[in-house]
Prior knowledge:
Strand order of the largest sheet: 2-1-3-5-4
Helix content: 40-55%
Strand content: 15-25%
Low-confidence stretches: none
Order of helices and strands: EHEHEHEHEHH
Mean pLDDT: 94
Radius of gyration: 15 Å
Amino acid sequence: MNLAIGCDEAACDLRDTVRQHLLAQGHAVTDFGTHDGAPVLYPDVAIAVAQAIVQGRHERGILLCGTGIGMAIAANKVAGIRAAQAHDTYSAERASRSNDAQIITLGSRVIGAELAKAIVDRFLASTFDGGGSAQKVDAITGFERAQAASARGEEGGP
């Protein structure tokens, strides 16, 4: 799978562990930084990863910061992205299967390396199964489109 990964300075060590784990499994991984542990604005990293996914350059993304919260908030500002914070394997699976999330966010101050690898593995092994959740995901997408149309001054806005 072609993956995008990114982190802030709080999560460099966990990002390195997850990246090596993914590479060992044969995934292609593009690292959006930070690369040297210097402080960064995590929204810049999250938005870059999210845009790369929306543009079709990567299939899925993994974002890491101290809690995973900020990265999820920032990534979700990119139209077409569904990013979910997950600190357990069940949530990671449901993010994909029920919510069609393309990005998972992890908190380096919340989980350890082995759990992070298990969460990522479960997320990547899961695919959207539609079912009863398809209508909910469609509602989110519909709102996003209406909001974009409204911003452009077109009819059909929220």
